[in-house]
Design brief:
The complex is a heterodimer. By secondary structure, chain A is mainly alpha-helical. Helix content of chain A is about 80%, strand content about 0%. Chain A has seven helices and no strands. Chain A starts with a helix and ends with a helix. The chains are: A mainly alpha, B mainly alpha.
Chain lengths: ~210, ~240
């Protein structure tokens, strides 16, 4: 088979939605997962570093943990979960060419993303105002760095969501575009997933 | 002959990665990094105890850092091939490639200066040492920008046989994101974002090493793709348009 034909065959393969349970396929391009798993792996190292430091000073970490505002953390968790739901339904709408619905759903996800950033800003400001800064102790150092790195991911995710929103202008997406859209959606789910690990790790585990 | 020279340029990148690790880690001993919260006297003591090691290891880097250039020349050429002409992406790639060897040689000059007169005022040695680490670990912008451009190129390559596989584009995003925390070393003297920290030093160093290995192999393959394209064009008497 010549390369063009191979590409077209691969593209056709990508375009087929996962209709039957027997016909399983990877969402997005296979390459997306190199990035997603690579990122998860490194966050795994971050979490392990945190746990190691926590093991060195369990009392300090537990005391400092209790000063965090669980309600804001919980609100952010719910916001991200909701945004993920929006993204899932938006992808479904894009697949069935319901452009208007997809646009509103993605806008909803975007609002959730911005709300997350807003709440984080409130939380950071409150912490600094109360006198808790990264210099204070190891827990706060890790708290600011880990949530900061996650926030960096959220900001990239917001750019991704805006890109997805621009794709709803097209009535039909080519296979490559559809794969990119799915990859972008997977990235947003990764941002959600990382927070779901991060939230209990920082706010809840005693 | 062209193919051989270009392949050599690709593998030179891998060789330089190895040379860098040997010079900094084994000869000079500046990896693993010293503690940024050490006092001036402690830093000065490290430099006077390892004076000769540091000077030899880093002098080798000052001499050889410029051997990274052919590797980045090849990278810029491949970006040019995807772009189709000497456009903004390939020119930016060249401009930033010029800065790359200085990232290594300039930082090494500061550390060599610190080790050159071990009996001087420790405060001066500490300041020189800080500059060494700030350039070595903190100057991440140029390479990250190059990697972002490369990512873009991989994704816009619409030719039948692209120079790079698409997963390489995602791999570059991964590197670009994980390389960024190095820029935080200016703000911390302690913890994971200090210059001896897990997030600012060890993870960026690891992903940089992986990136160099993967990019060497990808460039070597891109040279093959280009050679095949040339031989097809030659057989069909299609001449490549001038840049």
């Amino acid at each position: 088979m010549n390369p063009t034909a191979t590409r077209q065959a691969a593209a056709a393969d990508l375009a087929t939605p996962s209709a039957t349970p027997g016909d399983r396929r990877i969402p997005g391009e296979a390459g997306t997962w190199i990035f997603l798993f690579g990122d998860m792996l490194v966050f795994g190292v971050f979490f392990a570093t945190f746990m190691y430091e926590r093991g060195l000073a369990p009392d300090l970490f537990d005391e400092s943990r209790q000063t965090l505002s669980t309600s804001i953390g919980l609100a952010n968790t719910l916001i991200l979960l909701t945004s993920s739901l929006f993204v899932v339904t938006a992808i479904r709408a894009i697949r069935s060419s319901e452009r208007l619905a997809a646009r509103w759903l993605l806008a909803g996800a975007l609002v959730c993303g911005l709300a997350f950033v807003g709440l984080k800003a409130v939380e950071y400001t409150a912490k600094v105002y109360e006198g808790y800064t990264p210099d204070q102790n190891t827990f706060y150092l890790y708290y600011f760095i880990l949530t900061g790195l996650h926030l960096f991911h959220v900001l990239i995710g917001i750019v991704v969501l805006v890109t997805l929103l621009t794709q709803t202008r097209h009535a039909e997406l080519s296979a490559t575009r559809m794969a990119l859209v799915e990859g972008g959606a997977c990235f947003w789910h990764l941002v959600d997933l990382l927070w779901i690990v991060l939230f209990p790790l920082l706010y809840l585990v005693s | 002959m062209h193919v051989k020279i270009e392949k050599a340029a690709a593998w030179l990148g891998l060789a330089m990665l190895g040379a860098f690790l040997v010079m900094f880690w084994i000869i000079a001993g500046v990896i693993p990094p010293m503690d940024p919260s050490d006092t001036a006297e402690q830093i000065a003591a490290i430099y006077s105890e390892n004076e000769l090691r540091i000077r030899i290891g880093l002098a080798l880097m000052i001499l050889s850092a410029f051997l990274f250039a052919p590797f980045f020349a090849l990278l810029s050429r491949q970006v040019r091939r995807i772009e189709g002409y000497w456009g903004v992406m390939s020119l930016t790639q060249i401009l930033l490639s010029v800065t790359f060897p200085f990232g290594f040689s300039l930082c090494a000059i500061f550390a060599v200066t610190a080790a050159y007169r071990p009996d001087r005022n420790p405060d001066v040695t500490q300041a020189l040492n800080d500059i060494f680490w700030f350039i070595f670990v903190g100057l991440v912008g140029p390479l990250i920008t190059q990697v972002v451009i490369l990512t873009f190129c991989v994704f816009i390559d619409r030719r039948t046989v692209p120079s790079f596989p698409r997963w390489y584009g995602y791999f570059n995003i991964w590197y670009a994101i994980l390389g960024v925390p190095g820029c935080a070393v200016f703000l911390f003297k302690d913890g994971p974002l200090a210059w001896d920290g897990m997030f600012a030093f060890w993870i960026p160093l690891t992903v940089f090493s992986i990136w160099m290995v993967v990019t060497t192999v990808m460039l070597s393959k891109a040279v093959d793709v280009e050679a095949a394209e040339r031989s097809v064009n030659a057989a069909e008497r299609i001449w490549e348009p001038a840049a």
